Amino acid sequence: MTALIVLVLASACGNPPSYATTLTAPAAADPVPCTSSLNVAAQAAGPNDWPVYHRAADRRGVDPTLRSSHKPDPLWDLNLDGAMSAQPLVVQGMLIEATEHDTVYALDAATGCVYWQTSLGQAFAVPNHQRLCVNNIGPWLGVTSTPAIDPVARMIYVVAFFEPGRYEMDGLDLVTGAVEWRHPIDLPGADPLYQLSRPAIQLDAGRAYASFGGRPGDCGQYHGFEIGIRTDGQGAQVLYQVSPNREGAIWGTAGPVLLPGGDLLLSSGNTDEANAYDGSDSVIRLSPDLHRVDSFTPSNWKFLNQSDLDLGSISPILVDGGHVFAVGKEGVGFLLDLNHLGGIGGQKFSQALSGGCYGIGALAYRAPLVFVPCDHSLTAVRMNGSRFDVAWRGPDFQAGSPIVAGGLVWTYDFTHGFLWALDPGSGAVKQKIAIGLGEHFVAASSSAGRIYVPAKQHLIAFQIG
Question: 113-116 long-range contacts, Cβ below 8 Å, gap at least 24?
Answer without folding.
Answer: 113/31, 113/32, 113/33, 113/34, 113/35, 114/31, 114/32, 114/33, 114/34, 115/34, 115/38, 115/177, 116/38, 116/176, 116/177
